[in-house]
Structures are given as C-alpha cells and as structure tokens.
Amino acid sequence: MSSSTMFKLFLLSAVLSFYLSSGQKVNPLPCKGVTQDATVSEVDIMPCPKFPCQFKRGTNVSVAITFTLNAGATTASSATTVVHGIIGGVSVPYPTAYTDACKTTGIHCPLAPGVKNVYKAQLFVKPEYPTVNLYAKWELQDQTKADIFCFEIPAVIV
Where is each MD-2-related lipid-recognition domain found (predicted)? Predict the structure, then answer.
C-alpha cells in the first residue's frame, strides 16, 4: 500500500472517530409535572450519539443547552444548576461546580424573556461510580427555585 493511500485511510479513520465520539443534539424528555419558564431549543451532550447516553467512568460529560426565557416569564436575577440521578425511581442529588450558573456556565444574568442563552457545563463521572442505568435530571432554577428549564436524559454509567 502506498504512503498516500495509508495517509488517506488514517485521515478517514480519524474523521470517523471524531464524528462517532462527538456530541449529538438530543431530544431530552421533559420533566413530569414541572412548569418551565423557558423554551429549550437545543441540547447537545458529548459523548451521546444515541439514547441511552453511555457515560464512561473517569471521563467528563459535556452539555450545551440553548434556551430562551418565554415571553411573560419573570426576569431571572439568578440561576442555579440542580442535577439529580434518578435510579430505580429514587432521585439522588449530584453536586456540581456549576451551582451558580450565572458565574460558571456562560449565561449572563439577569436572564430576560426573549433572549437566547447558551448554557455550558461539564460533569466528571467518577471512577468509583457503579455501572447503573439512570435518568440524568437537569434543572436550571431561578431565584425563587422555579424551573427555568428541566429535562431528563436516559443514561448508563459504564
């Protein structure tokens, strides 16, 4: 095999590897019984090419959420990230470094109706976590603890 053919094969495999490991825009499940003050237009999770997302222990999971506060919603002077793992119907809090979302996720508070926002965060999947199926519940709450957005993602820790 010529060196140019080998290079082309290497380049093709590198591109395919990047594509297969990149995040995908997903359609999360809405939280049941929750009124939301925003419309989420896009959720991108890396790595998650399909549901259930496979979160590998010892790695980071990145999330980018594009949302717009609905017309008529109260301006959010602050925003707090709340994450839970729902395992067998039991909600388990997941502490994050993004609690004060206004300072840590790239959104700018106060959040006003009609303004597009892009929220970005990363979570570390600890090596000691057990292999388990779960739903990752992701909420952004305003100063009154009302949900700006809330959704769930089916996932498995591997």
Answer: 30-155
